[in-house]
Each structure stands twice: as C-alpha cells, then as structure tokens.
C-alpha cells in the first residue's frame, strides 16, 4: 500500500470541485485504487479508468479518467512507497 501525498495545486483543484458541488466520491475511489497498489487495483485502473503513463515533458506521470468521464482526469506520480497526487480536473485545466 502506498502513502498519499498531495501537491498544493491538487488541493486547490479539490477545493474547486467541492465549491462547484461536484461529487468527489468517484475521485476518492480512484485514489484508493491507486494507493492499494495491488494487481487487482492496477487492472481495474487500466481497464475501467484508462490509466496510463504519459510521455514527453510529463514522463513519469500517470493519468486516468475518473468514473469513465471523458473529461475528468487525475494525474499522479509514484515511487516504491508514495503516490503524489498532482492535479485533477478537465483536460484543458491539467495538461
């Protein structure tokens, strides 16, 4: 199981979602899957949420779609013990 860390930017993104009355339960569920770091959770992230590594300038950053929403993303980095949540929001806001 990974330990969570959040960037200041991610915290601001979360506050924006709450302010706009967005149901963040799907986001919390995806974050829990990431933190579990099991083979089953990775399979679910890949198949249901289209989780994948980014390339180019964002090499080493992972992205997935929240609740199969086409335009709600979560970006994170990970190492052996920590998952750092970087951003969440629409494509044009986070990329």
Describe this structure in words.
The chain has 95 residues and is an alpha+beta fold. The chain is 41% helix and 25% strand. The chain has 4 helices and 5 strands. A 5-stranded mixed sheet has the order 1-5-4-3-2. A hairpin with an 8-residue loop joins β2 and β3 (62-65). The chain is globular, with a radius of gyration of 12 Å. The chain starts with a strand and ends with a helix.
Give the total of beta strands.
5
Q: Globular, elongated, flat, extended or rod-shaped: what is the shape?
A: globular
Q: How do the strands of the widest beta sheet line up side by side?
A: 1-5-4-3-2
Largest pleated sheet: 5 strands, mixed
Unreliable stretches: none
Q: Work out the oligomeric state of the chains in this entry.
A: single chain
**Share of helix, binned:** 40-55%
Write the layout of secondary structure elements.
Elements: E1 3-6, H1 8-19, H2 25-36, H3 39-49, E2 52-53, E3 62-65, E4 73-78, E5 82-89, H4 91-94
Parallel strand pairs: 1-5
Antiparallel strand pairs: 2-3, 3-4, 4-5
Helix pairs in contact: 2-3
Labels describing this entry:
95 residues; alpha+beta; five-stranded mixed beta sheet
In short:
With 95 residues, this protein is an alpha+beta fold.
């Amino acid at each position: 199981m990974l330990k969570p860390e959040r960037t200041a930017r991610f915290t601001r993104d979360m506050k924006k979602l709450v302010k706009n009355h967005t149901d963040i339960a799907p986001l919390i569920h995806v974050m829990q899957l990431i933190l579990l770091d099991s083979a089953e959770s990775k399979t679910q992230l890949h198949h249901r949420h289209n989780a994948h590594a980014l390339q180019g300038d964002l090499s080493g950053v992972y992205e997935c779609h929240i609740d199969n929403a086409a335009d709600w993303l979560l970006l994170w980095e990970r190492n052996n013990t920590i998952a750092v949540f970087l951003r969440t929001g629409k494509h044009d806001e986070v990329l």
